[in-house]
């Protein structure tokens, strides 16, 4: 089976999901029909939507569920059971097969096919976008799994059992991919992919801003493990007078079958059972800060004036059985058809501002702007994205204990970073669960995460990585062995829960 050359973008999301599941029967790392070294002569722009749809499928569903639960926005409903093992931190390797296969077979390999195509003239823009998407998908893969196959994995049947590369070297490749992509986007004359680009509709300036923001995200990810490289990279980026994402980079969805938000699409496949509900961890923090966004991220139960939540993982013993679900705004309400049109945010405007704020806080962004203004703008962007007003964000930040008060009390760089990441965490609720979990693994912020009541990890151990999929264990002779969930990836901190 292959995911190549799906010509109608409106049908892509369903087809990518079906294709990823179908790949589980393959006996080799690559299906022979998907050899990046032998690209067909079809226009690469016709393959671009497949890559974008695959990435969106991962961010909006596969990674979103793990990230949403492990960042303690959501927990398993007491009246259902689909995600109990995630709340238990008790997962088999097979739980990660679909994410791995979608990333490699539908995203990375198809991006490489676009890049390798030398038979169609004038497609430099499409190749540039493919390089940037390759960088994005590579970061998704390595941030979840750590060391991964990369160079050999994208060379088709040449390497049936591709070697794993260290996460450090994978990150070096991410920066190279971004630079190559931006260089191609600056080609004087090339064919614009237009509507085949479902993210920016061929907007090259938007893609360059996206690439710059992705590079900033990647450099900040290694800020603790390799601060010298992170600082040098960010300073070099700012020396180019870069543009950054100012509007959410999303794929938009419809209510037509196969084109719905991928999380909602899966809930429909699960007979609209409401598995995901509000976690007390974040709801308590929202209430403590008088943050009205909670009424946008979650739905009130009938006759209730407050979001109903339960402690993380307390699905078996909770006296409360009816719990507030994630709202349709984030695509998380299984019985509200408006969930179908919720966007998947690859990089949000609010994330972009908080990334810039951290670069300024660390002193790595010459002329990067005023620090607290960037934080305030990040907060306000989140409020606007939920349908609230800038004034609501301004009032919240001025009064919230984790807002201006915390900023004034932050007298060190690290304390300022804590304020930034905590505000970023609140802003990402329901939309960017995996990114919020990754930032917690990197920084340890916010500091109020608790061990799931259902945890089977033992002690205060926390989930800090994904397990390698069963497909690797059974088919790749160079499989390096399974690392426990509680062992962080290269760039992460050695974290445990404190309670």
From TrEMBL:
Q: Name one Pfam family in it.
A: SusD-like_2
InterPro entries membership:
SusD-like_2 (IPR041662), TPR-like_helical_dom_sf (IPR011990)
Q: What Gene3D superfamilies is this protein classified in? A: 1.25.40.390
Q: Tell me where on the tree of life, at the top rank, the source sits.
A: Bacteria
For this UniProt record, give its keywords in alphabetical order, as a comma-separated list: Lipoprotein
Query: Which SUPFAM superfamilies does the record cross-reference, listed alphabetically?
Result: TPR-like
Q: Does the keyword RNA-binding apply?
A: no
Q: What protein name does the entry list?
A: SusD/RagB family nutrient-binding outer membrane lipoprotein
């Amino acid at each position: 089976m292959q995911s190549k050359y799906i010509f109608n973008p409106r049908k892509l999301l369903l087809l990518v999901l079906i294709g990823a599941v179908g790949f589980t029967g393959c006996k080799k790392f690559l299906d022979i029909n998907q050899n990046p070294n032998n690209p067909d002569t079809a226009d690469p722009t016709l393959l671009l939507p497949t890559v974008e749809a695959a990435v969106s499928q991962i961010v909006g569903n596969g990674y979103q569920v793990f990230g949403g639960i492990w960042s303690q926005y959501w927990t398993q409903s007491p009246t259902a059971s689909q995600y109990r093992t995630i709340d238990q931190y008790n997962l088999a390797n097979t739980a990660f097969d679909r994410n791995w296969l979608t990333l490699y077979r539908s995203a990375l390999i198809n991006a490489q096919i676009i890049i390798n195509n030398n038979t169609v003239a004038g497609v430099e823009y499409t190749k540039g976008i493919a390089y940037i998407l390759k960088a994005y998908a590579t970061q998704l893969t390595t941030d979840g799994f750590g060391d991964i196959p990369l160079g050999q994995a994208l060379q088709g049947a040449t390497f049936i059992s591709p070697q794993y590369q260290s996460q450090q070297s994978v990150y070096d490749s991410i920066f190279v991919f971004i630079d190559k992509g931006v260089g191609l986007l600056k080609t004087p004359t090339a064919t614009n992919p237009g509507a085949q680009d479902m993210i920016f509709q061929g907007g090259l300036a938007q893609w360059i801003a996206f690439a710059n923001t992705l590079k900033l995200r990647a450099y900040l990810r290694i800020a603790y493990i390799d601060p010298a490289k992170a600082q040098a990279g960010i300073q070099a980026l700012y020396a180019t007078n870069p543009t950054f994402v100012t509007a959410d980079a999303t794929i938009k969805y419809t209510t037509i079958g196969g084109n719905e938000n991928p999380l909602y699409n899966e809930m429909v496949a699960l007979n609209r059972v409401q598995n995901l509900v509000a976690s007390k961890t974040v709801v308590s923090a929202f209430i403590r800060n008088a943050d009205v966004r909670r009424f946008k991220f979650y739905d009130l139960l009938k006759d209730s004036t407050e979001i109903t939540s339960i402690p993380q993982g307390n699905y078996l013993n909770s006296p409360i059985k009816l719990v507030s679900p994630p709202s349709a705004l984030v695509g998380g309400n299984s019985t509200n058809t408006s969930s179908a049109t919720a966007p998947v945010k690859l990089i949000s405007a609010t994330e972009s501002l908080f990334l810039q704020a951290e670069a300024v806080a660390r002193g790595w962004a010459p002329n990067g702007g005023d620090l607290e203004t960037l934080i305030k703008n990040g907060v306000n962007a989140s409020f606007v994205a939920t349908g609230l007003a800038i004034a609501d964000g301004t009032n919240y930040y001025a009064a919230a204990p984790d807002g201006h008060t915390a900023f004034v009390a932050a007298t060190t760089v690290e304390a300022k970073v804590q304020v930034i990441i905590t505000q970023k965490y609140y802003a990402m609720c329901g939309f960017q669960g995996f990114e919020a979990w990754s930032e917690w693994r990197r920084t340890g912020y916010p500091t109020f995460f608790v061990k799931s009541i259902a945890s089977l990890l033992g002690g205060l151990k926390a989930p800090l990585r994904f397990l390698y999929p069963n497909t690797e264990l059974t088919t790749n002779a160079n499989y390096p062995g399974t690392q426990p969930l509680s062992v962080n990836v290269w760039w992460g901190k050695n974290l445990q829960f404190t309670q």
